[in-house]
Amino acid sequence: MSFYTSLNGMKNAQTSLGVISHNIANSETFGFKRSRTEFSELVAGSALSNPRMIQGIGASVKSITQNFSLGPVEQTGSALDLAITGDGFFTTRSAIDGSTLYTRAGSFTLSGAGNIVDSSGNRLQLFPVDANGQITGNTLSDANLPTQNAAGAEFVGVTIDEVGVVSASYADGSTDPVGAVALATFISPTGLKKVGQANWEGTGLSGAATYGAAGSGAYGSLLSGSLERSNVDIAEELVGLITAQRNFQANAKAIDTATQISQTVINLRS
Q1: Which PANTHER family match (predicted)?
Q2: Is the pTM of this model over 0.85?
Q3: Could you list the mean pLDDT of each consecutive 10-residue stretch along the chain, which spans 270 residues?
């Protein structure tokens, strides 16, 4: 029994080491959210067991829980670098299969087609707006900046304000609102599924996305010219790394001790 109890402990410590290593590896990844490993106790007993004699049989990994606390904000000066001050997520459309992705990494650029995209080519989603920048509907569409305005003037730049209104500037001095950045929130963000590149997908555990504009409710305002860094605390992760290593060593020592006891019993002579 003690062999398998300690073996499970070693496997759990190894899982914890893997999670911590992943956190440390992504300490410089914009929009990354750290995870922690949670364990639960295992016991063996029945309805007829004496509750004072029920024996524990180790632990198992209960969950690997994501931490969505806000990371440090770094100023970059680029108009298309965006940071969210609240709980919202940027909504993007996958360039590969058209699926909807959510991210906190706001490093966007302009594509050759005039779309606002992330480093993987996923297209930022906007709400439609009128000429005054007021949202006119909740249908999401790709952020696309026309290369010319109605007067034929060439595109020269883009700005995004704190409520997410994207405005294109043209050579004749005019500015045209293109749309408003659509932010998403979830009733249970820890249920979101990681898909890499600091992107998540909605699941049944996270609940359906609720969309809204920046500057309202829990969505948070936008900071143009800034990026949210990883929320990994290196000092905290290193302490966790040492703890997980000691846990692994202690379980290994328990197996070694159980082996010695078994060997002693086997060597007993009458």
Answers
A1: FLAGELLAR HOOK PROTEIN FLGE, FLAGELLAR PROTEIN
A2: yes
A3: 85 96 96 96 83 85 95 95 96 93 96 94 96 94 93 94 95 95 96 95 96 92 96 96 95 89 78
Q: Are residues 55 and 141 in the same domain?
A: no
Distance between CA atoms of residues 106 and 235, nearest Å: 26
Residue environment code for 24-59, b if the CB has 16+ CB neighbours within 10 A, otherwise e: bebeebbbbbbbbbebeeeeeeeeeeeeeeeeebbb
Among the listed residues 96, 110, 111, 126, the one whose alpha carbon sits nearest the alpha carbon of residue 196: 96
- Rounded Cα distance, 171 and 179, in Å: 20
How far is CA 52 from each of CA 42, 56, 213, rounded to the nearest angstrom?
Answer: 16, 11, 57
Work out how many domains the chain is built from and give that number.
2
Answer yes or no: do 224 and 237 share one domain. no
Identify whether residues 44 and 154 lie together within a single domain.
no
Report the 10 Å Cβ neighbour count for 68. 17
Helix or strand run (H / E) with residue 247: helix 234-266
Structural domain boundaries enclosing 11 = 2-68+232-266
Instruction: Taking the CA atoms of 218, 77, 67 and 94 in sequence, report the sign of the dihedral they define.
Output: positive
